[in-house]
Amino acid sequence: MKENFNYNDVPVDYLQCLNDQCPRSGDCLRFQTALQANSETISFLVVNPVYMQTREECPFWQADQLTRFALGFNNALSTLPRKEATQIRKILYEHFGRSMYYRIRNRERLIRPEEQAFIQQVFQNEGLQENLVFDTYVEQYDW
């Protein structure tokens, strides 16, 4: 868990775990998050421990590690000739939908690692040879 962890950043619908008998609890984000709840936390969603007693492996385990999200790609688009930029925009519209495309491009929504890879591939397919650099990057937990 990162040093400056703020429990208030945890989404209210994030499923947490209190199973301290789990062999993977030490590196599970769901368990480590539940440990951070303080006296001001009235309630949170938790995995049913009875359900977990009948399972050999936990289907809810999530690595306690930060994820590198990207924000925006306006800078990369602005460096391309108009024809290539228009083609990239068209492909990304079709993939994400127009509204989501603009939210992603304009830094209103985080770009997940798999989405970054897709966008990178689109840029490469349209002639951008070097690695795409997004406008900015943010490291945070993937809730």
Task: List descriptors.
143 residues, mainly alpha, 2 domains, two-stranded antiparallel sheet, 6 helices, 37% helix, elongated
What does this structure look like?
This protein has 143 residues and is mostly helical. It has two domains: 7-53, no CATH class; 67-140. The protein has six helices and two strands; from the N terminus they run ααβααααβ. It has helices at residues 29-35, 49-53, 74-78, 82-96, 98-105, 113-125; strands spanning 67-71, 136-140. A two-stranded antiparallel ribbon has the order 1-2. The chain is elongated. The two termini are 13 Å apart.
Ordered list of secondary-structure elements with their pairings:
Layout: H1 29-35, H2 49-53, E1 67-71, H3 74-78, H4 82-96, H5 98-105, H6 113-125, E2 136-140
Antiparallel strand pairs: 1-2
Helix pairs in contact: 4-5
- Measured as a percent range, the helix fraction is 25-40%
Overall morphology: elongated
Count the domains: 2
Number of strands: 2
Task: Provide the spatial order of strands within the biggest beta sheet.
Answer: 1-2
- Find the structural class using helix and strand composition: mainly alpha
Oligomeric nature of the chains: single chain
Largest sheet: 2 strands, antiparallel
- In DSSP terms (H or I, runs of 4 or more residues), the helix count works out at 6
Cα distance, first to last residue? 13 Å
As a whole number of angstroms, the C-alpha radius of gyration is 20 Å
Strand content: 5-15%
Order of helices and strands: HHEHHHHE
Unreliable stretches covering 5 or more consecutive residues: none
Q: What is the arithmetic mean of pLDDT?
A: 92
